[in-house]
Amino acid sequence: MRVALFVTCLIDQLFPGVAEATVTVLRRCGIEPALVPEQTCCGQIAFNDGFWPESRTLARRHLDLFEGADAVVTPSGSCAAMVREFYSMLLQEDHDLTARAHHAGARTYELTEFLVDVLHRSDVGARFPHRVTYHASCHGLRGLGVRNQPLQMLSRVQDLELRTLDGVEECCGFGGMFAVKFAGLSGAMLETKMRAIEASGAEFVTATDASCLMHIDGGLRRQRSSVKALHVAEILASQ
């Protein structure tokens, strides 16, 4: 299987360790992912803010760069949802591009979704002796239907104690530009999420999206909380 790693711009610029952890996990499963150094943003940021012509340019570039892969794996439910859900709508005026967009969406996977649903792996030899709670990121949950896969993976991590999070499927308040345009509402949603995280008794909060974790981690740091945010790929890569 020819598997390509879709790093995403946020991870590339701010959280490169998440990409490295993703490669580590895939290699443990016998997959040597192809790295595409020319990759850029998938166009989600421009798309969400109404700049559709600019987003189309990025979408066409993404399709070209990842054309030859049997599967495209990304440690981001949000960016995977952009390709799977919105590329075909964004490129619908061109029938050839629409067909390519459907094909790209069908072979683009969030990391835990790929591990569980494609490779049928739930144990990747990870060990993480800490109390962990899981936040279900909106795009992965509602866009991709990724609900049980991350929990299945975490449940097989040696010495990890998985703590229940009240309101696990409630938004953390990030939502990209939502957090900028509706800062008050975003902050209130974040406060609710942080209270639930603290109440869980966890040492770490994890999720499938670095963007949500960035938002949550910023709030926890401002409150001087001892709880740390860590991407699920980093937990699965630990030993």
Explain the overall architecture.
The chain is built from 13 helices and eight strands. The longest helix has 18 residues, at 183-200. The model has no long low-confidence stretch (mean pLDDT 96). The chain has a four-stranded parallel beta sheet, with helices on both faces. It has 239 residues and is α/β, with parallel strands linked by helices. The protein folds into two domains: 3-118, no CATH class; 131-237, Rossmann fold (3-Layer(aba) Sandwich), CATH 3.40.50.
Provide the number of structural domains. Answer: 2
Secondary-structure element order, N to C:
EHHEHHEHHEHEHHEHHEHEH
Give a short account of the largest sheet.
4 strands, parallel
Q: Mean pLDDT, rounded to whole units? A: 96
Unreliable runs, pLDDT <50, ≥5 residues? none
Q: What's the Cα radius of gyration?
A: 17 Å
- Total of helices: 13
Sum this structure up briefly.
By secondary structure, the protein is α/β, with parallel strands linked by helices. The chain has helices spanning about 10-15, 15-30, 45-50, 50-65, 75-90, 95-105, 110-120, 140-145, 150-155, 180, 185-200, 210-220, 230-235; strands spanning about 5, 35, 70-75, 110, 130-135, 160-165, 205, 230.
Topology summary:
Elements: E1 3-5, H1 9-14, H2 16-28, E2 34-35, H3 44-48, H4 52-65, E3 71-74, H5 77-90, H6 95-106, E4 108-110, H7 111-118, E5 131-134, H8 138-144, H9 149-155, E6 161-163, H10 178-181, H11 183-200, E7 204-206, H12 210-222, E8 228-229, H13 232-237
Parallel strand pairs: 1-2, 1-3, 3-4, 5-6, 5-7, 7-8
Helix pairs in contact: 5-6, 5-8, 7-9, 11-12
